Amino acid sequence: xxxxxxxxxxxxxxxxxxxxxxxxxxxxxxxxxxxxxxxxxxxxxxxxxxxxxxxxxxxxxxxxxxxxxxxxxxxxxxxxxxxxxxxxxxxxxxxxxxxxxxxxxxxxxxxxxxxxxxxxxxxxxxxxxxxxxxxxxxxxxxxxxxxxxxxxxxxxxxxxxxxxxxxxxxxxxxxxxxxxxxxxxxxxxxxxxxxxxxxxxxxxxxxxxxxxxxxxxxxxxxxxxxxxxxxxxxxxxxxxxxxxxxxxxxxxxxxxxxxxxxxxxxxxxxxxxxxxxxxxxxxxxxxxxxxxxxxxxxxxxxxxxxxxxxxxxxxxxxxxxxxxxxxxxxxxxxxxxxxxxxxxxxxxxxxxxxxxxxxxxxxxxxxxxxxxxxxxxxxxxxxxxxxxxxxxxxxxxxxxx
Length: 401
Prior knowledge:
The chain is an alpha/beta fold. It is built from 12 helices and 11 strands. A hairpin with a 4-residue loop joins strand 10 (350-355) and strand 11. Pfam families: Metallophos.
């Protein structure tokens, strides 16, 4: 008899016997979304939504808009950032009311809590929708890389987490196979090699699990990443992980979102769209993110913004700002990746808040802000009227949460 495609599925009988004992532990860690019987029915499962349903790429200004930067596999810091913005309580439940939240991508890589964060954010999306809130997640370059099979920034803890996921996914498939009338389930490891050149043997199973989960039409790509936006306009702000060039806008924002979604759902081949690859890609661009304002391509940024009706600023992650959230190009470029993950620079959590009047505030956990020498414009920053980024580098402001 031929060996099964996956070494994980060989252990299904033993894993099934321990299912009851470990279910509670996994529920607490966030790997399962348990039903809340006392609450309203959650939104439709994205798996059941037509893959041709158009994304909503443009949204009006909400009363309160929160932008969250790169999370990179650090669940603790992710929660700290959300608490800083008064979006979750001490029990990790949504308390943000009708606020709109945009997380600009890069949940994956550099840490070991990647799946936990994906499930946690999904839980918050459901909870937010019940109070009129909206929680939007986006694709970063690390989401695109992983679906493309580029695991350069994966950690051992990240591989281990996906191996655990693979075990439980096989258990789920085994259980479903016992039910009469259900279609035969596809082996998630079908076509994935058993070995990888240049990779240590101890990591083979982790690589196989990660590929199975994240390749186009993989269970995690389809369930979570295909629901991400790649470009988003909210009021006067456009969100993108890296940046936008004129050719991206000409190509079409809605078209970009839908094509990336179709690729993640396995409808358009194995390789990501060309505008997601390379230094000028929408998820890789750094032309507007240099910490020195004089090094940013402000003329190109102004041209891009002028071609998108009603938009005054571009909000980006991707490039770590060691001094904290800041703006450049007369505050038309807002950079919100503060490297908060322990896998990056272990930066202090910060988020950006925008009110209905389009006023900006930085909410920061940084206790070291020195306010002894403030210019008049820096005083406006503290009142929420804008940012100041001098040529020698950006400034940071502390706002008590």
